[in-house]
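README: folding subset

This subset contains proteins for which both the sequence and a predicted structure token string are available. Records are stored as plain text. Below is the entry for Transcriptional regulator (895 residues), shown exactly as it appears on disk.
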Amino acid sequence: MADLLAGVREGRSGTLVLVGEPGTGKTSLLDQVAAGCPDVHTVRIAGVESEMRLGFAALHRLLRPWLPHIDELPAPQRDALHTAFGRLAGVAPDRYLAGMAALTLLADAAAPQPLLCAVDDAQWLDRESAEVLAFVARRLHAEAIGLVFATRPHGQALVDGLPALTVTGLPDDDAESLLSTSISGHLDGAVAARIVAGTGGNPLALIELAHALTAEQLTGITPLPSPLPVGTFLETHFLRQVGRLPAETRTLLLLVSATPPEDPSLLWRAAGHLGIAAAMADPALTAGILTPALDFRHPLIRSAVYRGADPADRRLAHAALAAVCDPVLDRDRHAWHRAEATIGLDEQVAAELDRAADRARARGGHAERAAFLSRAADLSPDPRARAARLVAAAHAHLVLGDPASVGPMLDRAEHGLDQPVPRAIARQTRAIAEMYTGRFTGAATILLDAAGSIAAVDAGLARTMMFDALQAVLFTDDRDATLTLPALARAVQDSPASTRTDDFSYGYADLFLYGYTTRIAVGYRPAVPLMRAALAALSSDGDSLAEECLPLAVISMFAAEDVWDEDGGRRVWRRLEKHDRDNGALANLRTTLVAGATWELRAGRFDAAAALQDELDELSDVVGQPHRGGIQRIELLAWSGREAETRAVAAAGLGFDDYVQNSLAVLEISLGRHHEALALLLPAFDRDKPGVATRSLHEIVEAGVRGGDDPAAKAALTRMEERAQASGTPWALGLLARCRALMADDEQAEDLYRESADLLARTSIVTEQARTHLLFGEWLRRRRRRADARAELRTAYEMFTRMGAAAFAERARVELLATGERARRRDEQATRDLTPQEKQVASLAAAGATNGEIAARLFLSTSTVEYHLTKVFRKLAITSRRRLATVLAAQRAAR
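--- output ---
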């Protein structure tokens, strides 16, 4: 804690999670920190159990001092917070965009004076607030902000992974000293030892026992109570104290426990509604249960009072709070308190919760929506309405990334699902929950059956379900024996919901569905215009983006590679990336970055591809998602010639079989191991899965020709002839010309190689341009045309070296040596010691982005961007941004 505060005073940021059982001193530590830091502005809140279901409630209380400054934030962040707090009707913000807004607001607040935010009882935070604060904690760096959580063990999983300090009981000597100083009379030594041992040195238990035990017990004349009030037994101890107070005081304390400490007016309005005078607080003040600020002297008393109250009394308190909440300005709190005050069935209250759930969804409060809908289901007299609310609640849990809660809710809904569409939606939700957890096997069958059950009733929804099924099968790499791609494609083509037409006015989802299934069930040529239309629709600003199944980056990447449409694929990537960054959709951005890295790799910009991969790794930490063992880097590793790393990643066995095999094949070809490459590629050729199989056709031709397997090469070339001509893009035709050259007679090969080089030069696929020059140079050298071969091989060597394709560059260098030209082996120059994030910041600054633009793009504060730039300037020995572009370009040229 001292180190954290010292860093905050020096302009650095830090986070600490205090974890301990009730009474171990977490709150006292927060008290000491707040009292001992007059030079640090401290803001403190505590989680309130009764408000756990109100999305963003705790965040609103934490940010209350700076709410007037929200309008000064960048527009997307401003709108995100206004929407989250119900001040603005708009598109529900992604929780990470709300987190970025909170980070910017806090960073601005810390500019004039270091800031400490202390969150007690974090286990009672609403989920939306916890997610935002966890995001802020993971992005803090150089803002002079300290963020401290106090929570019980396993109390708030969302802060897992943050720096933590376990707060335990006091050592025996300190515990006995605390006990002695808390007692005015005599304390028997043996009794003290038994108390310390029985409480585990729990400070709160020691203090409470010092006041609760009689003189006879303290001196050992009468036995100690059993069990001693420690841990959860402390709540019983506090309840006994509360139970000795007058009835109206107890009711007042229950209202205090259900009311945020920062809203005393709500408390006194509710008390007035029940006819409780302010003087009824005096007995609690005298007993030391309440502080003069009318808050509990310890947070544990709050939870003890609320959880230990008689259910009827708790309903009475909620009814009073509902009665005094403004039903217009505070509609959601009014609805929740009214629901908590209701026992039995009440459709009117359930309908009010339904409307509150809709508002929660509009604000991005998906946990709040799930809670409201679940409670509305409990209150619903009609089985169908109850089932519909449970299914909607299950879907809200999906959006939250909480698939484990979906099954139980759908099980509860089963009885009321007696209509085709609601039943199909429930099955769709269950299948997607399975996919979220990585269990794709069987999900596609459920989705296809659900679509079939409503195809004649709701064709649009049926097509959505079939699109989900398509994604599931594409993702299984044929591991799902229950439904193959051809079977799915035929079912979609034959479905009454598939009113196929050549009118491409469909949305991108339908076009992808028809494009993929046409490609599989009908043929490649008729699928090409559908795939292109789908990519065009997805890249258009007119279509909204909804990613509730697999990320669209995967589907679009497969489609673009299948029809060799680099322009359409790049436009989609740029649109998805902009959408994800603008909306703070970090979970989807991670997959979009993989697609972006692939396009950058194709363009020979390995540094840019690596930067996107570095950002992906960093974002995985931010969103608390595990890394996939570097699987997303395997293609870049293979092209870079990093053999040991490539094989290590492949050996991890993380699925994505065709993708891994293709990457390994590229490595094998670069090393001249054509037999090995062909063995890796042929299984995908046989399956002919869209995207993966087409991208490897030219690899099979090369590996077959060089490895002496003419039948394999001819089969791949035959397929290549049909598809490349149907595609008609320079990328496709350039690869086709090269494949023809590899298998042509001498008099035709040269013209075909030159045709390939000319066509690929019209694309941004630099990796394939270089490979054509390499193969052409090798062909020329074998025909003893050394001068011509040197020109091609030198071009290939320079291109491969520039991009960082080490194994291909070495292959070109060896060929150059055979022509009589000595090419110096170039070791990659060690770059200056920039961290991945410093490289990102430096590259964006060199491109002319302002600090604010860099911060928004990388989900950082401007203070952190300034901090990184300062370190970049020092490491590169420059003093201004103007020199950045020159220095970075010089480094790339040197490599």
